[in-house]
Structures are given as structure tokens and as C-alpha cells.
Amino acid sequence: MIIQPRVRGFICLTSHPEGTAQHVKQQIDYVKSKGKIDNGPKKVLVIGASTGFGLASRITAAFGSDADTIGVFFEKPAAPGKPGTAGWYNTAAFEKEAQAAGLYAKSINGDAFSDEIKKQTIALIKEDLGQVDLVVYSLASPRRTHPKTGTVHTSVLKPIGQTFTDKTVDFHSGVVSDISIQPVESEEDIDNTITVMGGEDWKFWIEQMKKAGVLAEGAKTVAYSYIGPELTYPIYRNGTIGKAKDDLEGTVPLLNDLLSDIGGRSYVSVNKALVTQSSSAIPVVPLYISLLYKVMKEKGIHEGTIEQMQRLFAERLYADREIPLDEKGRIRVDDWEMRDDVQTEVAKLWEQISTENLEQISDIVGYRNDFFNLFGFNFDAIDYNKDTNELVNIPSIKD
């Protein structure tokens, strides 16, 4: 079938198998270009492995450290005349590249919040790998069915305490406008967001894996967070999502206690603002990222997800030195984003930005391109007017 991008708001409803494969290959080539990561992980589980930071983590582990990897995610395969999700095609491409390189790679498609998928994953680790030495937790979902109660919890993206009003952009049309978001109405909405996006499920994974004996001596686990600049605080760090991130970060000491007898450690890595399926949904953030990209590219310090994860693994998690942490015990690979010179310039541009000057003083073109790349579009080498085979299988997942 001929697959063209079909967009609704911040979601692309279609994805292209050849384009996503090219995107995965580009990330693999980048990791290879950086050389091997000394003392890197060898057996890795990535929970939320099909897109964004999770996919980049899996690629970095496999092609930076020759690691065996298992990926867990929830994606839709293609049907005749209907493309699969980008994450499905990403994983198909990753597994094929891994197998060609002689690397073990298997995947599990299902609800990672469920006890069933945890049991299935643990069984696969026992059967094929024995134990893992790194667990990456990179799950992003708007809702969660709690495995103990069966209750469905839905997260909300809202400020707390007062209405938030600021600039935003429709990154498709390029229209800059003001947006107002009403504050959360109840503590229940905050609690639900924490239940979906906080640290409880990460803790459940590590508890069950530890009990099953599939965590190696000295195993590490890392989850991902974001802080950002003050201008995004009301909608992000001081809003409902921020409460969930506080909970995620507060899980670290609990996991460190749990892992202490096997010499293991847990970490939260605070990453840079980047174009992902999740970040595109947050008002204000696409406009901020467009300005940030402009400034960081001009300074020669721009990174995408794969550059961020390669640096996290090579210069933080597996560097031959003590891992530097901030005052709250977090790894910071948002350090270049949060540099004073970067944030000062972004703040100046924020005051000037309008629909009329958007393309001149921001990198909205780069933002759009990165957005469409996520779904396999906007790659020059691919003719999107030609038929492509939508029915792509993930080698390790049988019908």
C-alpha cells in the first residue's frame, strides 16, 4: 500500500515501515561511530522499548556494548491495508539489525503494567539469559490498569492551584497563540496521574525480578525524568506530571534498599527536552523545544534521543568513575540544555516569538522534521508515493 502521513493534532495516525527502518539504522550507525562502551551492560531488559528514549537505550546497549536485549512494549501490528504503529516497525527493524550483527534480541508485546507480562518476561529471561545486569524503565502511557485492584487509572496533564496561561504553537500550521489550561479539580486526578506515571510499577518490576532471581550481582536499573526551565514549570514540573515524576524519583532509595544485598543500584536520569510522541502532547513544550533546538544547534551542542542515551551509558552509567549526581541524587544529561547561556537566549527568544517570526527565530522546521521522522516520514531516500509492504513482522513475536 501507499502510506502517507495522516495527522490529527499531535498524533500521526500512520507510520512507514521503510522510513522507521531508516530511522533505526541511523541511530545504530551513530552508536557504532562512537565506539564500544567499556564495561557496558551485557544482558539488558528495556521496559518501554519501542520508541523514544527506550528504543535509543536498547540500540545503545546492543550496538554500543554487544548486549543481549529483551524489549517490552505495547504496540499494534499491521493488518492488510492498515499500517502498524511506529513502535512495531521500529522493533522489527531493530531485531533484524541485531540478528544480522549476531546479537540476541527478543521482544514481548503486551501491557507492561500487568502481572502477566511481568511473569512472561521473567520466564523469558530465565530461559534465554539467566539474569540481566541492566533494567531500563522507560514506560509512557496515558492510563494504567492496576494489577492488584483492576482499577483503570487515567493521567491528566494540568497545572495545580491556578489557571496556566502562556504561549504555545500549532507546529503543523506554525500559528503561535496563547493557551489557558484550567487547574486540576481534585486530588483524585493528581493521585491517578501518580499511579500511572510514578514509580510504583517500576518498583513492582524490580521486586518481582529480584524475587525470581533474574537480577545479576551488581545489576543497575534506570528510569527517565525531566525538569525543564521555569517557563514550563506550571504545566510540567509543578503540575500533575511533575507530581508523578517526584514519585518516580522518590522510588530510587526504596530500590537501592531492595538491591543492596546484590550490590545493585537504581538511578533516575533527567534527560533533555526532545521531540517524542509524549512531549508533542504537552502545551508550550513544542514551542520551547523549537527555540531550544535553534539555540543548541547554533552552539553545536544539540542532541537527539540516541545522542542522549549514548552519552548517558558511556559517560555516566558505565564510565570508569563514580557517577556524578545532583543534590537530589539524580543523573543529569540535561546539563547542556540547562546551561545558563542556553536558557538566557531561549528566554529572550520566548519574549519575541510570534507567528510572523516563528521560522526566523526558532527551529520549527527541525521540530516538524523530527516529529515526522518518529513515524518514518520525511526521509529523502524514500519515495512515499510508491507501494510499500505494510505487513512487517517482528522476528521474535509469533502470530
Notes on the protein architecture:
- The protein is built from 13 helices and 13 strands.
- Helix content is about 40%, strand content about 15%.
- The protein has a seven-stranded parallel beta sheet with strand order 5-4-3-6-11-12-13, with helices on both faces. A two-stranded antiparallel ribbon has the order 1-2. It has a two-stranded antiparallel sheet with strand order 7-8.
- It has a domain at about 5-150 and about 190-285 and about 300-335: NAD(P)-binding Rossmann-like Domain (Rossmann fold), CATH 3.40.50.
- It is α/β, with parallel strands linked by helices and about 400 residues long.
- The two termini are about 20 Å apart.
- Helix 3 links the parallel strand 4 (about 70-75) and strand 5 (about 105-110).
- Helix 9 packs across helix 11 (about 340-350).
List the helices and strands and how they pair.
Elements: E1 7-8, E2 11-12, H1 17-33, E3 43-47, H2 52-65, E4 68-73, H3 86-100, E5 105-109, H4 115-129, E6 132-137, E7 143-145, E8 152-154, E9 164-170, E10 175-181, H5 187-197, H6 200-212, E11 215-225, H7 240-250, H8 252-259, E12 265-270, H9 285-298, H10 305-317, E13 331-332, H11 340-352, H12 358-361, H13 364-374
Parallel strand pairs: 3-4, 3-6, 4-5, 6-11, 11-12, 12-13
Antiparallel strand pairs: 1-2, 7-8, 9-10
Helix pairs in contact: 1-2, 1-3, 2-3, 2-10, 5-7, 6-8, 9-11, 9-13
